[in-house]
Amino acid sequence: MGDYKVFTVNPGSTSTKIALFEGDKKVFSANVSHDAGALEKFETLADQLAYRKETIGQLLKENQIDLRGLDACVGRGGGLLAMDGGTYAIDELVLDHSIHAANGVIHPACLGPSIAKEFADMYGAKAYTVNPPDVDELQDLARMTGIKGVYRMVHLHALNLKETAIRHAESLGKAYEDCNFVVCHIGGGISISAHRGGKMVDGFDIVGGEGPMAPTRCGSVCAADLLKYCEGKDLKEVKKLCTRSGGFVSHTGISDALELTRRAENGDPYAEMLWNTMIYQITKCIGSMAAVLHGKVDGILLGGGMVYNQDLVNQVKEACDWIAPVCAYPGEFEMEAMAAGAGRVLDGKEAVKTYSGVCNFQGFDFA
Prior knowledge:
This protein is α/β, with parallel strands linked by helices. Helix content is about 35%, strand content about 20%.
Protein backbone atom coordinates (compact mmCIF):
# COMPACT_ATOMS: atom_id res chain seq x y z
CA MET A 1 0.00 0.00 0.00
CA GLY A 2 1.32 3.41 -0.94
CA ASP A 3 1.94 6.12 1.63
CA TYR A 4 -1.71 7.22 1.56
CA LYS A 5 -3.52 9.04 4.33
CA VAL A 6 -6.78 7.18 5.00
CA PHE A 7 -9.41 7.88 7.67
CA THR A 8 -11.77 5.02 8.62
CA VAL A 9 -15.13 5.21 10.40
CA ASN A 10 -17.10 2.32 11.92
CA PRO A 11 -20.28 3.36 13.83
CA GLY A 12 -21.60 1.19 16.65
CA SER A 13 -24.60 1.40 18.95
CA THR A 14 -23.23 4.00 21.41
CA SER A 15 -19.79 4.70 19.94
CA THR A 16 -17.96 5.12 16.66
CA LYS A 17 -14.57 3.54 16.03
CA ILE A 18 -12.23 5.77 14.06
CA ALA A 19 -8.67 5.29 12.85
CA LEU A 20 -6.16 7.25 10.78
CA PHE A 21 -3.63 5.41 8.63
CA GLU A 22 -0.55 6.63 6.83
CA GLY A 23 0.36 3.80 4.51
CA ASP A 24 0.21 0.56 6.49
CA LYS A 25 0.79 2.34 9.79
CA LYS A 26 -2.11 3.17 12.10
CA VAL A 27 -1.12 6.57 13.50
CA PHE A 28 -4.26 7.19 15.56
CA SER A 29 -7.30 5.24 16.69
CA ALA A 30 -10.10 5.84 19.15
CA ASN A 31 -13.52 4.62 20.16
CA VAL A 32 -15.58 7.81 20.20
CA SER A 33 -18.26 7.53 22.89
CA HIS A 34 -21.69 8.99 22.23
CA ASP A 35 -23.97 9.82 25.14
CA ALA A 36 -26.72 7.18 25.21
CA GLY A 37 -29.23 9.73 26.48
CA ALA A 38 -28.43 12.06 23.61
CA LEU A 39 -28.82 9.26 21.06
CA GLU A 40 -32.21 8.29 22.47
CA LYS A 41 -33.55 11.75 21.63
CA PHE A 42 -33.15 11.09 17.91
CA GLU A 43 -36.11 9.40 16.27
CA THR A 44 -34.11 7.81 13.44
CA LEU A 45 -30.53 6.79 12.72
CA ALA A 46 -30.34 9.53 10.09
CA ASP A 47 -31.09 12.11 12.78
CA GLN A 48 -27.90 11.06 14.63
CA LEU A 49 -25.61 12.00 11.75
CA ALA A 50 -24.77 15.59 12.68
CA TYR A 51 -24.33 14.72 16.38
CA ARG A 52 -21.97 11.81 15.65
CA LYS A 53 -19.92 13.85 13.20
CA GLU A 54 -19.61 16.69 15.71
CA THR A 55 -18.54 14.29 18.47
CA ILE A 56 -15.91 12.72 16.21
CA GLY A 57 -14.66 16.14 15.13
CA GLN A 58 -14.34 17.27 18.74
CA LEU A 59 -12.27 14.24 19.69
CA LEU A 60 -9.98 14.75 16.69
CA LYS A 61 -9.50 18.37 17.74
CA GLU A 62 -8.77 17.43 21.35
CA ASN A 63 -6.09 14.99 20.17
CA GLN A 64 -4.67 17.47 17.63
CA ILE A 65 -5.32 15.08 14.73
CA ASP A 66 -5.02 16.95 11.42
CA LEU A 67 -6.86 15.42 8.47
CA ARG A 68 -5.46 17.85 5.93
CA GLY A 69 -3.93 16.01 2.99
CA LEU A 70 -6.39 13.14 3.40
CA ASP A 71 -6.47 10.81 0.38
CA ALA A 72 -9.52 8.75 1.28
CA CYS A 73 -12.18 8.28 3.91
CA VAL A 74 -13.82 4.87 4.35
CA GLY A 75 -17.09 4.19 6.16
CA ARG A 76 -18.64 0.88 7.16
CA GLY A 77 -21.46 0.28 4.69
CA GLY A 78 -24.53 -0.98 6.50
CA GLY A 79 -28.01 -0.92 4.99
CA LEU A 80 -27.03 -1.72 1.40
CA LEU A 81 -28.50 -4.41 -0.82
CA ALA A 82 -26.62 -7.62 -1.61
CA MET A 83 -23.55 -7.08 -3.79
CA ASP A 84 -20.21 -8.56 -4.79
CA GLY A 85 -17.23 -7.86 -2.58
CA GLY A 86 -14.83 -5.02 -3.22
CA THR A 87 -14.29 -1.31 -2.67
CA TYR A 88 -17.21 0.91 -3.67
CA ALA A 89 -17.30 4.65 -4.31
CA ILE A 90 -19.72 6.40 -1.97
CA ASP A 91 -22.16 8.13 -4.31
CA GLU A 92 -25.67 9.49 -3.87
CA LEU A 93 -27.26 6.04 -4.26
CA VAL A 94 -25.00 4.54 -1.58
CA LEU A 95 -25.83 7.45 0.73
CA ASP A 96 -29.57 7.07 0.15
CA HIS A 97 -29.69 3.28 0.52
CA SER A 98 -27.42 3.13 3.57
CA ILE A 99 -29.01 5.93 5.61
CA HIS A 100 -32.51 4.53 4.90
CA ALA A 101 -31.48 0.86 5.39
CA ALA A 102 -32.61 -0.36 1.98
CA ASN A 103 -31.96 -3.95 3.06
CA GLY A 104 -34.27 -3.60 6.08
CA VAL A 105 -31.48 -4.12 8.64
CA ILE A 106 -31.35 -0.98 10.80
CA HIS A 107 -27.90 -0.81 12.39
CA PRO A 108 -25.58 2.11 13.24
CA ALA A 109 -23.26 0.90 10.45
CA CYS A 110 -25.85 2.48 8.12
CA LEU A 111 -24.34 5.83 9.13
CA GLY A 112 -20.84 4.85 7.99
CA PRO A 113 -21.02 6.04 4.37
CA SER A 114 -22.64 9.36 5.30
CA ILE A 115 -20.05 10.17 7.98
CA ALA A 116 -17.22 9.15 5.65
CA LYS A 117 -18.58 11.26 2.79
CA GLU A 118 -18.88 14.37 4.96
CA PHE A 119 -15.29 14.11 6.18
CA ALA A 120 -14.07 13.29 2.65
CA ASP A 121 -15.81 16.37 1.24
CA MET A 122 -14.31 18.56 3.97
CA TYR A 123 -10.78 17.57 2.97
CA GLY A 124 -11.13 16.93 -0.77
CA ALA A 125 -10.64 13.18 -0.39
CA LYS A 126 -12.18 10.12 -2.03
CA ALA A 127 -15.01 8.39 -0.15
CA TYR A 128 -15.34 4.60 -0.15
CA THR A 129 -17.01 1.68 1.57
CA VAL A 130 -15.20 -1.67 1.59
CA ASN A 131 -16.80 -5.13 1.67
CA PRO A 132 -20.07 -4.01 3.33
CA PRO A 133 -22.01 -6.43 5.58
CA ASP A 134 -24.26 -7.47 2.70
CA VAL A 135 -21.54 -8.83 0.43
CA ASP A 136 -23.16 -11.92 -1.12
CA GLU A 137 -21.13 -13.93 -3.62
CA LEU A 138 -22.87 -17.29 -3.31
CA GLN A 139 -22.47 -19.73 -6.16
CA ASP A 140 -25.72 -20.85 -7.79
CA LEU A 141 -25.76 -24.24 -6.08
CA ALA A 142 -25.83 -22.50 -2.72
CA ARG A 143 -29.00 -20.53 -3.55
CA MET A 144 -31.76 -23.12 -3.92
CA THR A 145 -33.77 -24.41 -0.97
CA GLY A 146 -36.42 -27.09 -0.64
CA ILE A 147 -39.19 -24.49 -0.69
CA LYS A 148 -40.20 -23.07 -4.05
CA GLY A 149 -39.54 -19.35 -4.28
CA VAL A 150 -37.32 -19.27 -1.18
CA TYR A 151 -33.67 -18.68 -1.98
CA ARG A 152 -30.66 -18.37 0.27
CA MET A 153 -28.99 -15.01 0.85
CA VAL A 154 -26.24 -14.52 3.41
CA HIS A 155 -25.19 -11.96 5.98
CA LEU A 156 -21.61 -12.49 7.13
CA HIS A 157 -18.70 -10.59 8.68
CA ALA A 158 -17.52 -10.00 5.12
CA LEU A 159 -15.03 -7.24 5.93
CA ASN A 160 -13.05 -9.26 8.48
CA LEU A 161 -13.45 -12.58 6.62
CA LYS A 162 -12.01 -11.22 3.39
CA GLU A 163 -9.20 -9.28 5.06
CA THR A 164 -8.15 -12.39 7.00
CA ALA A 165 -8.10 -14.38 3.75
CA ILE A 166 -6.14 -11.67 1.89
CA ARG A 167 -3.54 -11.48 4.67
CA HIS A 168 -3.12 -15.23 4.87
CA ALA A 169 -2.75 -15.53 1.10
CA GLU A 170 0.01 -12.91 1.22
CA SER A 171 1.77 -14.91 3.95
CA LEU A 172 1.79 -17.86 1.52
CA GLY A 173 3.20 -15.66 -1.23
CA LYS A 174 -0.04 -15.99 -3.19
CA ALA A 175 -2.94 -13.82 -4.30
CA TYR A 176 -6.29 -14.24 -2.55
CA GLU A 177 -7.79 -15.00 -5.98
CA ASP A 178 -5.49 -18.03 -6.33
CA CYS A 179 -6.44 -19.68 -3.02
CA ASN A 180 -9.22 -21.74 -1.46
CA PHE A 181 -9.94 -21.07 2.22
CA VAL A 182 -12.50 -21.85 4.90
CA VAL A 183 -12.60 -18.59 6.85
CA CYS A 184 -14.28 -18.11 10.22
CA HIS A 185 -15.07 -15.03 12.27
CA ILE A 186 -15.68 -16.18 15.83
CA GLY A 187 -16.89 -13.39 18.09
CA GLY A 188 -20.28 -12.17 19.31
CA GLY A 189 -21.54 -13.55 16.01
CA ILE A 190 -19.94 -16.46 14.18
CA SER A 191 -19.49 -16.46 10.40
CA ILE A 192 -18.15 -19.51 8.57
CA SER A 193 -17.53 -19.21 4.85
CA ALA A 194 -15.97 -20.94 1.84
CA HIS A 195 -13.69 -18.78 -0.33
CA ARG A 196 -12.70 -19.88 -3.81
CA GLY A 197 -10.90 -17.78 -6.38
CA GLY A 198 -11.43 -14.53 -4.47
CA LYS A 199 -15.16 -15.07 -3.87
CA MET A 200 -17.17 -16.18 -0.81
CA VAL A 201 -19.01 -18.90 -2.67
CA ASP A 202 -20.93 -20.20 0.35
CA GLY A 203 -21.51 -19.43 4.00
CA PHE A 204 -24.11 -19.42 6.77
CA ASP A 205 -26.62 -16.59 7.15
CA ILE A 206 -25.97 -15.43 10.71
CA VAL A 207 -28.83 -12.93 10.66
CA GLY A 208 -31.27 -15.57 9.43
CA GLY A 209 -30.41 -18.16 12.09
CA GLU A 210 -28.03 -20.43 10.18
CA GLY A 211 -24.71 -21.85 11.31
CA PRO A 212 -23.39 -22.60 14.79
CA MET A 213 -24.73 -21.35 18.09
CA ALA A 214 -23.06 -18.08 19.17
CA PRO A 215 -23.15 -16.01 22.38
CA THR A 216 -26.34 -14.17 21.32
CA ARG A 217 -27.50 -16.30 18.37
CA CYS A 218 -29.40 -19.57 18.28
CA GLY A 219 -27.78 -20.93 15.10
CA SER A 220 -29.44 -23.63 13.01
CA VAL A 221 -32.44 -25.32 14.61
CA CYS A 222 -34.69 -28.04 13.18
CA ALA A 223 -37.61 -26.32 11.41
CA ALA A 224 -40.22 -28.59 13.01
CA ASP A 225 -38.82 -27.96 16.50
CA LEU A 226 -38.74 -24.23 15.89
CA LEU A 227 -42.36 -24.20 14.67
CA LYS A 228 -43.43 -26.05 17.81
CA TYR A 229 -41.45 -23.57 19.95
CA CYS A 230 -43.25 -20.66 18.22
CA GLU A 231 -46.71 -21.82 19.29
CA GLY A 232 -48.31 -19.11 21.42
CA LYS A 233 -45.27 -16.83 21.24
CA ASP A 234 -44.75 -13.37 19.74
CA LEU A 235 -42.94 -13.98 16.45
CA LYS A 236 -40.96 -10.75 16.82
CA GLU A 237 -39.55 -12.02 20.09
CA VAL A 238 -38.79 -15.42 18.56
CA LYS A 239 -36.93 -13.76 15.69
CA LYS A 240 -34.62 -12.10 18.22
CA LEU A 241 -33.21 -15.58 18.93
CA CYS A 242 -31.35 -15.27 15.62
CA THR A 243 -29.31 -12.24 16.63
CA ARG A 244 -29.92 -11.04 20.20
CA SER A 245 -31.48 -13.50 22.62
CA GLY A 246 -30.30 -16.92 21.43
CA GLY A 247 -27.20 -18.96 22.23
CA PHE A 248 -25.55 -18.35 25.59
CA VAL A 249 -28.16 -15.67 26.38
CA SER A 250 -31.07 -18.09 25.94
CA HIS A 251 -29.45 -20.69 28.18
CA THR A 252 -27.77 -18.61 30.88
CA GLY A 253 -28.76 -14.98 30.40
CA ILE A 254 -25.15 -13.95 29.69
CA SER A 255 -23.47 -13.11 26.38
CA ASP A 256 -19.90 -12.81 27.64
CA ALA A 257 -17.83 -15.77 26.43
CA LEU A 258 -15.15 -14.99 29.04
CA GLU A 259 -17.71 -15.30 31.83
CA LEU A 260 -19.03 -18.56 30.37
CA THR A 261 -15.54 -20.09 30.17
CA ARG A 262 -14.83 -18.97 33.76
CA ARG A 263 -17.98 -20.77 34.89
CA ALA A 264 -16.92 -23.86 32.96
CA GLU A 265 -13.43 -23.80 34.49
CA ASN A 266 -15.02 -23.50 37.95
CA GLY A 267 -16.91 -26.75 37.44
CA ASP A 268 -20.26 -25.59 36.00
CA PRO A 269 -21.29 -28.53 33.75
CA TYR A 270 -23.98 -26.49 31.96
CA ALA A 271 -21.48 -23.80 30.96
CA GLU A 272 -18.95 -26.42 29.89
CA MET A 273 -21.51 -28.19 27.72
CA LEU A 274 -22.56 -24.91 26.07
CA TRP A 275 -18.95 -23.95 25.31
CA ASN A 276 -18.06 -27.34 23.87
CA THR A 277 -21.32 -27.56 21.91
CA MET A 278 -20.61 -24.23 20.25
CA ILE A 279 -17.13 -25.40 19.21
CA TYR A 280 -18.53 -28.74 18.03
CA GLN A 281 -21.02 -26.91 15.81
CA ILE A 282 -18.25 -24.64 14.48
CA THR A 283 -16.22 -27.68 13.42
CA LYS A 284 -19.27 -29.25 11.73
CA CYS A 285 -19.78 -26.07 9.73
CA ILE A 286 -16.09 -25.92 8.79
CA GLY A 287 -16.38 -29.47 7.49
CA SER A 288 -19.36 -28.58 5.33
CA MET A 289 -17.53 -25.60 3.82
CA ALA A 290 -14.52 -27.84 3.12
CA ALA A 291 -16.88 -30.13 1.20
CA VAL A 292 -18.08 -27.11 -0.81
CA LEU A 293 -14.43 -26.66 -1.84
CA HIS A 294 -14.19 -30.40 -2.71
CA GLY A 295 -11.53 -30.79 -0.05
CA LYS A 296 -9.11 -28.52 -1.91
CA VAL A 297 -8.46 -26.19 1.01
CA ASP A 298 -5.30 -24.11 1.40
CA GLY A 299 -6.08 -23.16 4.97
CA ILE A 300 -8.72 -22.94 7.69
CA LEU A 301 -8.50 -19.42 9.09
CA LEU A 302 -9.89 -18.37 12.46
CA GLY A 303 -10.47 -14.68 13.26
CA GLY A 304 -12.49 -12.76 15.84
CA GLY A 305 -12.30 -12.07 19.54
CA MET A 306 -12.98 -15.60 20.81
CA VAL A 307 -9.93 -16.86 18.91
CA TYR A 308 -7.82 -15.46 21.77
CA ASN A 309 -9.09 -18.52 23.67
CA GLN A 310 -6.51 -21.27 23.13
CA ASP A 311 -8.92 -24.05 24.10
CA LEU A 312 -11.20 -23.07 21.21
CA VAL A 313 -8.29 -23.01 18.77
CA ASN A 314 -6.99 -26.36 20.01
CA GLN A 315 -10.39 -28.04 19.69
CA VAL A 316 -10.83 -26.74 16.13
CA LYS A 317 -7.33 -27.93 15.23
CA GLU A 318 -7.97 -31.37 16.70
CA ALA A 319 -11.19 -31.73 14.72
CA CYS A 320 -10.18 -30.10 11.44
CA ASP A 321 -6.44 -30.02 10.80
CA TRP A 322 -6.72 -33.22 8.75
CA ILE A 323 -8.51 -31.05 6.18
CA ALA A 324 -5.94 -28.24 6.02
CA PRO A 325 -3.66 -26.24 8.34
CA VAL A 326 -5.64 -24.28 10.94
CA CYS A 327 -4.28 -20.74 11.44
CA ALA A 328 -5.42 -18.32 14.14
CA TYR A 329 -5.75 -14.56 13.62
CA PRO A 330 -7.19 -13.39 16.97
CA GLY A 331 -9.16 -10.17 17.03
CA GLU A 332 -10.54 -8.11 14.19
CA PHE A 333 -8.99 -6.24 11.26
CA GLU A 334 -12.01 -4.12 10.38
CA MET A 335 -10.31 -0.72 10.47
CA GLU A 336 -7.20 -2.10 8.77
CA ALA A 337 -9.39 -3.83 6.20
CA MET A 338 -11.17 -0.61 5.30
CA ALA A 339 -7.88 1.25 4.92
CA ALA A 340 -6.36 -1.60 2.90
CA GLY A 341 -9.34 -1.66 0.53
CA ALA A 342 -8.92 2.06 -0.16
CA GLY A 343 -5.18 1.55 -0.59
CA ARG A 344 -5.64 -1.17 -3.20
CA VAL A 345 -7.84 1.15 -5.25
CA LEU A 346 -5.52 4.15 -4.87
CA ASP A 347 -2.56 1.93 -5.85
CA GLY A 348 -4.41 0.78 -8.97
CA LYS A 349 -4.29 -2.85 -7.84
CA GLU A 350 -8.08 -3.05 -7.72
CA ALA A 351 -10.78 -1.20 -9.63
CA VAL A 352 -13.23 0.87 -7.65
CA LYS A 353 -16.79 -0.43 -8.00
CA THR A 354 -20.10 1.36 -8.47
CA TYR A 355 -23.02 0.24 -6.32
CA SER A 356 -25.96 -0.73 -8.55
CA GLY A 357 -28.69 -0.53 -5.95
CA VAL A 358 -30.05 -3.86 -7.20
CA CYS A 359 -29.57 -7.19 -5.42
CA ASN A 360 -26.95 -9.21 -7.27
CA PHE A 361 -29.24 -12.26 -7.23
CA GLN A 362 -32.68 -11.90 -8.82
CA GLY A 363 -33.70 -15.54 -8.96
CA PHE A 364 -33.19 -18.16 -11.68
CA ASP A 365 -34.54 -17.68 -15.18
CA PHE A 366 -36.06 -21.18 -15.22
CA ALA A 367 -38.00 -20.46 -12.02
